[in-house]
Write a structure and sequence with these properties.
Elements: H1 2-32, H2 34-45, H3 47-72, H4 75-101, H5 103-119, H6 125-138, H7 183-186, H8 195-240
Helix pairs in contact: 1-3, 1-8, 2-5, 2-6, 3-4, 4-8
Length: 241
Amino acid sequence: MGCFTKLALFIINFAIFAFGVAIVALASIIIHKDDTYRALLGDGVFTLPIIVLIGGLIIVIIGFLGCCGAMKESKCMLNTYAFIVIVLLLAELTCGILLLIYPNQAEEFLKETMGEAYKSYGEDPTATKSIDIIQSDLHCCGVENYTDWQSWPYGQTGNVSRGCCKEDDGSGTCFMNKNTLPESQAAKSIYTKGCYQAMKDDLKEEVVALCVVLFIMVVIQVLAVTCACGIAKRSSSHHYA
């Protein structure tokens, strides 16, 4: 039974190592899109995928250490390993619960941050260029929709950003006097969908994959702690025997 537990812990930690690599890969894909969304989300918001990346690297290291602990059957190493995994597991569960309990607050925070970025449109050349590119690429306009531009300095005259234009008609005026038009009229020349929803749709597959991987990780971590504690207890019994 002891050999089976040892082998099980080794296999589980090899799986943890593999899933850690998967988390790092998925987080890296999202971070790659960081440059695309930085102008809308600001410098501080997109630390989440970086945190996930760091978490993935920690999981990779834990998986490696778990494999070594299983082979050596060191009580100290196994207990330390179990403690680290439990702390990580509690942190993952806490973050998941908070996101489930306060999804609206998280969403409003992101929208407010995006709104702050839009306020600098027309004043900050770098932000202006980035926002135009983002809206053109994602086929969106504003945060929730094109009428949001009424609330920002650049849109006080009725304009939306140039990046909202579906096509350049050659006159250079496709973005003018559009944020007060009915959607049916505005949609003839500009994108009317909000960029927040467009971003959610663009990242949907990556987020779903990340959630699936994290859920599987939770199950594996519980099994890993159980096996590690079992081996540590057995090692302790052998020591006193």
